[in-house]
């Protein structure tokens, strides 16, 4: 055995010397680095110590050689991909070499992973034999079997063989250098845009055209103002900017129009040179930047200019932007900057840099009617559309599938125009991706531009998303967990940042660059990928990722596929995938037969890192699941309510690499064996576990799961369930503690060691209501459950103390919480409820009836929600305050009339069931929603400010005020006699008010003196059960002409007046 081990180590030494030559595609550049680092830092310590005496070199020198090789590896890493693009004749063998490289790296990773698995297994075994806990830092060495050593040697030899393929690549390198340079030059010019329209007409964007031209011609006192056209690739941003240039050129409105195509390479010098080139014929690129900017200043100092910056990507280098814009501030008053970008972050940055008037025009997907104009313009070019009725019908189907993309309409229209026959059009319409990528490369080239400008780490994360269906809603946290499991988020040994934090940075960058969009879903915060971007993901992941739906006719699934999603009915189509690493299985409801989906043993591949099963059936896993020694992520979900039974064998507790285990609705009786109580604690790498409350209560000894990031913990009286189980879990980010009443004394509470959990972000502490408490003991216990200062979210529920915990009221070294929620703290009454919390943004207090007074609110507070609180009055609100919700505060009598005086950002005001509240404070013009229900008010408040004194950004031309109000809801206010106040102020306009609801105000007599006709944007008006309403003067317009929905009932004389004018009780227009 010793001689065999020696041969393996010699092979590793050989690899250390040849690693400098190993090159792979950019997509797995960092993976190679990690593998090399693991060989250096992991492999040697695991091998038997007796072998070291036989080594011709020591581990330290081997590690140094490997580390020296890494920079040279990085330098050559992307050349293979470049060669494939530049020299098409080489693409096949380069693709083969890249696949062989990937397989070699995968094999090396697997061997190292098995070594680590063996160590973890031995560690758990030793821990159980010792009857206690064993740190993961112990047991650095383990007994290595001959099989693993054979695999290790084979993996290293395979890496050497792949590296030998570099000779052929290097032969091409010098020969292709000039081609690459030419290609780069060609690529730059190909994507460069100009100020001249390339389209015959700008179709389908009339509103946007009018807004841009209106902004360009609008007088301004600002020296320079800006407007950004923001939208996804292919929506027509550049075309709109070109149109604007043409219009301004024809009108002579500006002295000079300068067009600069910025693209991804942001350079102050380069852009300044292009601006000068646009102003004069001579070039001066060899001069210093200072001289260039002086020349620019001289050219524009007495001119009103329009600068158009097309395709801007830079959203971070604020100092560079400041330097670029500096000369433009000296242009003639009224100069303007129009720019196009895919990223809102660019618009925000440029707005803050210019720091004067700024507007943003978000460019949305086109409607089918507008898009049809563009599509028809190209699809029926040179023919009479009336002669092709059959094709027009198919064309309408195509337009609906293009999902609002003008560039797709143009390219697909041109494609179809080349074959004016029904079979071809129908084939294109029925095509899975709609777009024939071989013949319509323009679409993908435009959309791929964003992708190819991503770092390699982000590219692979985005490609992975192609296994999910179009319009799939992604949960950010779950997606990041999947990325981690697949190995996309690689940490160098020197990195302290959590992989979750790295993943979040990845996701946020992809979101910022429009690879994801926020979804307005009732599920909470979700994200989707734009349809055409999803097509990009599928295109660039071909051969690496695949999705097989039910009844899919796909026959050839490449053996190179690493990540797959498959319907259960097609699962045998992936049985040949030896290297699969991610498997997502969807199940369907069965009308007959068993309701269990049983995972076939022939698709259980040892290489799997991720296994997710979800759908409409219960699930049964085979006992062979423990063969998945590399598995990091196991999730089983059932979509609909009912009996959720997941039959999980006890062998899952041998998956020592597991980081995520989720079976949220599993039934305790059938799903888990008796080993459940302690078996889960074998999973020492577990970071997330999600089960039903029934199961979470049974898990014993969680102190062993030291890698946990989130935990729901039920405090018990028995050993293994007491609060001191939390003492070792110092990496927790989110902690929920139930049954806190089971903590016996303050000393036990201190043993939870919460203060030392420096990574803790959110904390929930809950007491149940079903027993009496020793108030003094309870107060001392919560004092000793002190969280770290960096805590961001704190919720306390059911607490029975009379005072707040000491650590919440001290002003020295206060908590950095941004959210504080107090629920059902029935006896809490001593002041202050909290001290200085300088970062607090959200404060929610619910069913705390003995709280009579709030302290001064922090300057950072944006949201306050009060329900069932014993407050008599409220303090003034800070400048950044945005939302106030008050409900069932029956003692509340007073809110200061100037409570909102400094609130320039208040958007939502909702006050309900506060019958003693007789007046409301004056309102800021920023308010969007005004809702009152069952109050004692007799009059409505007025707006703050006047024609001579108003809130700056809401003042419109001519000294009038512009309200931001959209909705008004007034109900069950029996003392209210008139809809006066802010609704009938003469100097206020309501351009956004679209909904008014008035109901059950039994003493309401007067509506606004100008009735509702002055609210020109009003589309929805409801008035009900207000029997004393008086009629209005005949000359007044009762309702605006564009009203879409009107409902009135039991409205006294007003109802008679409405009927006399031919207005029906219930009217709805579409």
UniProtKB/TrEMBL annotation:
Gene3D superfamilies: P-loop containing nucleotide triphosphate hydrolases, Ribonuclease Inhibitor, Winged helix-like DNA-binding domain superfamily/Winged helix DNA-binding domain. Residues 467-537 form the Disease resistance protein winged helix domain. One of its GO terms (biological process) is defense response. This is Disease resistance protein RGA2. It comes from Rhynchospora pubera. The lineage of its organism: Eukaryota, Viridiplantae, Streptophyta, Embryophyta, Tracheophyta. Residues 26-124 form the Disease resistance N-terminal domain. It comes from the Eukaryota. GO terms for molecular function: ADP binding; ATP binding. Keywords: ATP-binding, Leucine-rich repeat, Nucleotide-binding, Plant defense, Repeat. Residues 206-360 form the NB-ARC domain. Residues 723-848 form the R13L1/DRL21-like LRR repeat region domain. Belongs to the disease resistance NB-LRR family.
């Amino acid at each position: 055995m010793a001689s065999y081990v020696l041969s393996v180590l010699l092979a590793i030494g050989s690899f250390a010397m040849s690693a400098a030559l190993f090159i792979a595609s950019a997509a797995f550049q960092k993976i190679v680095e990690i593998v090399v680092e693991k060989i250096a830092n992991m492999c040697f310590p695991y091998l038997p110590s007796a072998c070291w005496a036989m080594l011709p070199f020591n581990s330290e020198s081997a590690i140094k050689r490997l580390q020296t090789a890494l920079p040279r590896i990085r330098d050559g890493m992307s050349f293979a991909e470049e060669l494939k693009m530049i020299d098409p004749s080489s693409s096949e063998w380069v693709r083969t070499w890249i696949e062989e490289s990937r397989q070699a790296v995968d094999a090396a990773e697997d061997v190292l992973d098995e070594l680590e698995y063996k160590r973890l297994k031995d560690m758990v075994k030793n821990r159980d034999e010792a009857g206690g806990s064993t740190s993961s830092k112990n047991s650095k060495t383990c007994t290595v079997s001959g099989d693993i050593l054979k695999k290790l040697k084979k993996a290293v030899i395979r890496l050497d063989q792949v590296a030998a393929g570099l000779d052929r690549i290097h032969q091409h390198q010098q020969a292709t250098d000039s081609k690459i340079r030419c290609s780069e030059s060609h690529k730059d010019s190909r994507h460069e845009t100009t100020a001249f329209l390339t389209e015959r007409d700008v179709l389908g964007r009339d509103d946007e055209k009018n807004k841009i031209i209106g902004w360009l011609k609008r007088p301004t006192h600002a020296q320079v103002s800006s407007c950004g056209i923001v939208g996804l690739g292919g929506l027509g941003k550049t075309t709109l900017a070109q149109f604007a240039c043409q219009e301004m050129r024809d009108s002579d409105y500006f002295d000079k129009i300068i067009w600069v195509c910025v693209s991804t390479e942001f350079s102050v010098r380069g852009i300044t040179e292009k601006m000068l080139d646009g102003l004069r014929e001579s070039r001066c690129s060899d001069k210093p930047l200072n001289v260039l900017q002086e020349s620019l200043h001289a050219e524009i100092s007495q001119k009103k200019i329009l600068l158009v910056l097309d395709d801007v990507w830079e959203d971070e280098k604020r100092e560079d932007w400041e330097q670029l814009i500096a000369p433009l501030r000296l242009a003639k008053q009224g100069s303007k900057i129009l720019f196009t970008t895919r990223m809102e972050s660019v618009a925000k940055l440029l707005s803050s840099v210019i720091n004067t008037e700024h507007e943003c025009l978000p460019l949305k997907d086109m409607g089918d009617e507008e898009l049809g104009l563009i599509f028809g313009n190209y699809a029926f070019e040179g023919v009479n559309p009336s002669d092709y009725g059959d094709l027009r019908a198919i064309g309408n189907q195509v337009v609906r599938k293009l999902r609002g993309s003008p560039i797709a309409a143009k390219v697909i229209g041109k494609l179809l125009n080349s074959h004016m026959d029904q079979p071809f059009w129908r084939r294109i319409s029925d095509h899975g991706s709609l777009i024939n990528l071989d013949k319509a490369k323009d679409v993908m080239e435009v959309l791929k531009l964003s992708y190819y400008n991503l770092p390699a780490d982000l590219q692979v994360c985005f490609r992975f998303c192609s296994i999910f269906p179009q319009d799939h809603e992604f949960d950010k946290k779950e997606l990041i967990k999947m990325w981690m499991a697949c190995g996309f988020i690689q940490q160098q040994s020197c990195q302290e940042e959590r992989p979750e934090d790295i993943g979040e940075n990845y996701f946020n960058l992809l979101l910022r660059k429009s690879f994801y969009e926020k979804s307005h879903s009732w599920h909470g915060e979700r994200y989707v990928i734009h349809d055409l971007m999803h097509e990009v993901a599928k295109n660039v992941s071909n051969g690496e990722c695949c999705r097989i739906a039910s009844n899919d006719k796909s026959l050839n699934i490449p053996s190179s596929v690493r990540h797959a999603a498959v319907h259960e009915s097609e699962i045998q189509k992936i049985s040949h995938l030896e290297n699969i690493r991610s498997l997502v299985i969807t199940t369907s409801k069965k009308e007959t037969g068993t309701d269990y989906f049983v995972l076939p043993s022939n698709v259980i591949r040892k290489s799997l890192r991720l296994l997710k099963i979800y759908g409409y059936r219960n699930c049964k896993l085979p006992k062979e699941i423990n063969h998945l020694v590399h598995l990091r992520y196991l999730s089983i979900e059932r979509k609909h309510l009912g009996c959720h039974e997941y039959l999980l064998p006890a062998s899952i507790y041998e998956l020592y690499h597991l980081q995520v285990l989720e079976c949220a609705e599993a039934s305790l009786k059938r799903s888990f064996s008796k080993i459940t109580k302690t078996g889960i604690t074998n999973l020492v790498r577990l970071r997330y576990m999600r089960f039903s409350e029934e199961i979470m209560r049974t898990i014993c000894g969680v102190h062993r799961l030291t890698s946990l990031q989130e935990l729901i913990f039920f405090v018990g009286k028995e050993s293994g369930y007491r609060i001191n189980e939390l003492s070792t879990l110092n990496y927790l980010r989110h902690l929920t503690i139930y049954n806190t009443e089971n903590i016996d004394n303050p000393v036990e509470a201190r043993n939870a060691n919460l203060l030392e959990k420096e990574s803790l972000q959110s904390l929930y502490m809950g007491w149940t209501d079903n027993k009496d408490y020793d108030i003094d003991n309870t107060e001392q216990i919560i004092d000793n459950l002190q969280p770290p200062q960096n805590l961001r979210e704190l919720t306390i529920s059911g607490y029975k103390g009379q005072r707040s915990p000491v650590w919440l009221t001290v002003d020295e070294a206060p908590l950095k919480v941004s959210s504080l929620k107090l629920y059902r703290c029935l006896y809490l009454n001593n002041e202050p409820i909290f001290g200085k919390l300088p970062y607090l943004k959200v404060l929610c207090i619910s069913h705390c009836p003995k709280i009579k007074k709030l302290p001064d609110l922090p300057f950072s507070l944006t949201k306050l929600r009060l329900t069932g609180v014993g407050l008599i009055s409220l303090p003034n609100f800070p400048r950044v305050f945005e939302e106030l919700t008050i409900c069932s505060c029956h003692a509340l009598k007073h809110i200061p009339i100037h409570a909102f005086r400094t609130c320039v950002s208040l958007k939502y005001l909702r006050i309900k069931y506060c019958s003693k509240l007789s007046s409301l404070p004056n309102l800021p013009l920023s308010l969007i929603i005004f809702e009152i229900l069952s109050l004692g008010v007799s009059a409505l408040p007025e707006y703050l400010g006047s024609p001579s004194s108003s809130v700056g950004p809401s003042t419109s031309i001519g000294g009038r005020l512009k309200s931001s109000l959209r909705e008004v809801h007034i109900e069950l206010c029996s003392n209210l006699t008139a809809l006066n106040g802010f609704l009938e102020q003469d100097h206020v306009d309501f351009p956004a008010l679209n909904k008014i609801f008035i109901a059950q105000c039994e003493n309401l007599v007067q509506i606004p003196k100008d009735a509702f006709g002055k609210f020109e944007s009003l589309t929805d008006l409801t008035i009900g059960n207000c029997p004393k309403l008086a009629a209005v003067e005949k000359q007044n317009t009762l309702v605006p002409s564009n009203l879409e929905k009107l409902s009135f009932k039991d409205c006294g004389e007003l109802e008679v007046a409405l009927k006399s004018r031919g207005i029906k009780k219930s009217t709805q227009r579409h």
